[in-house]
Design goal:
Elements: H1 2-25, H2 34-47, E1 50-53, H3 69-81, H4 86-90, E2 99-104, E3 110-116, H5 131-134, H6 150-166, E4 174-180, H7 189-194, E5 203-209, E6 218-220, E7 223-224, E8 228-237, H8 253-264, E9 275-284, E10 294-303, H9 306-327, E11 330-339, H10 346-357, E12 364-366, E13 369-370, H11 377-386, E14 390-396, H12 416-431
Parallel strand pairs: 3-4, 3-5, 5-14, 6-12, 7-13
Antiparallel strand pairs: 1-2, 2-4, 6-14, 8-10, 8-11, 9-10
Helix pairs in contact: 1-6, 1-12, 2-6, 6-12, 8-9, 10-12
Amino acid sequence: MTDTLRQLVQEIEPLLIKYRRDFHKYPEAGWTEFRTAAKVTEKLLDLGYEVKFGANAVSQKDMLGVPSEDELKIHMERAIKQGAKPEIVKKMEGGLTGIIAELDCGEGPTVALRFDIDANDISEAKDEKHRPYQDGFSSENPGVMHACGHDGHVAMGLGMAQIITKIKDKLKGKVRLIFQPGEEGSRGASAMVAAGAVDGVDFILGAHIGFQAKKNGQLICSTGKFLATNKLDVTFTGIPAHAAAAPEEGRNALLAASCAALNMHAISRHSGGASRITVGMLNAGQGRNVIPPNALMKMETRGETTDINDYMYNSVQDIIAGAAKMYGVEFQTKIVGATKSGESSPEMKTKVKNIAQEMEVFTEIIDYVSFGATEDFSHFMTVVQENGGIGTYVMVGSQLAAGHHDFYFDFDESCLAPGVELMLKTVVDLIG
C-alpha cells in the first residue's frame, strides 16, 4: 500500500504544481474567494464527493470581518470573468465561500483535513528576480497575493481528494475535506464550525507549507501554543466644535481613543502565559481647528490560552468604556476576527511521526514547536478535542524565497507531493 500511495502521488505531482500556479495567479482575500471556491467545488463534485457549500458550509450570522455587499459583488463578477461557473458563484453570494466535502468509505471513524484558501492583501512583486513573475503566474488581481502558501494548501487538498477516490475500497470510515475561507485575520473557522464542519469528527489534521519549517526535507509533526485572539474595530463618536471660539462645546473623540490606546498597553501581564495587545491603527479628527468628533481604532488581543485572551479582551472593554466616559463620547466595538487557542494531541503527533520516519524525503523530523502566533485551524482542532477527538498541525518544510506575508514570497513546489503523501498515509493509518 505504501508503494501504491507513493506512485499515485508521483503521477499527480505535475497536476499539483498546475493547481498551485493557477490559484496563485488568481488570488482572493477572505470572504471573496469566489473563483477559488467555485473551482474547488466543481472538481469535488466531479470526483463524486458529497459537497456542501454556500449557506450549507458557512453560518452567515457567525461570519466575521465580511466586506461590504458592493465589494462582494465586484469580486463575484471578477471570479466569473476569470473562469468560475456562475451557477456555483451565485450560491456563494454574501461571501459564503467555505466548502465541506465528504467521501463515505463505509462504517468507521471520520477523518477531517483542513485547507485554507484565502490570500493576503499585499501587492505582489513584479520583477524578474521573483519566480512567479518570471514564469508568468504572478497575481493578476491588484492588491492581493498568495504570500502565505495557501495556494499550495488548496493544491494539496485537491490532490488528496483525487487520490482518496482511487483507494476508497481500502478505507473504512469517512474522509472530510474542509476548504476554509478567511483564515487570515481569524475570520472563517467559527462560521464553518457553526455550520457543522467538524461535527462527528474523530481525527483532524492541518498543515502549513514553510513557516517554521524553512528547509526542504524538514517536517514538524505537531504544533502548540496557538494564541487565541479577538480582533476589534472600535469607533468613538464625539461632538465637533470650534477649537478656539468654543472648545468647551466639543467632545474630543481623538483624546478618548488615545487615552484608551495608551491604557490598553498598560494592562497587567498574565501569570498563566503569554499575552499580547496591539493597536495597529488609529485615525481621528477632521481638521486642524476642529475638536475631533470621530476616531477609528483597529486593534487586537491575543493570549496563550483562550482564558488569557478573554482576560485581555475584558480588560480592553473596560478601558474603552472608561475612556469614552472620561471624555463624554459614545463608542461602539465590532469583533472582526476571533479564534481559540490550541495544542496538538500527542497521540496524533506520534502517528504522524511514525509515518514520516518511513518516508525518505523527510530528513529532519521535529516532534513539536510552539507556534507563538494565531492560526484559525486551532479553532477546528480545539472543538474536535472538546468532543473527544484528536488532532495535530504539521509544517511541511520548504525553501522560501522570502518570509511569509512578503511581496517576494514563494516556496519550492517540490514540497507539495511529500505533503500530500504524508496526509494520505495518515488517513490510511487512521481508517485503513
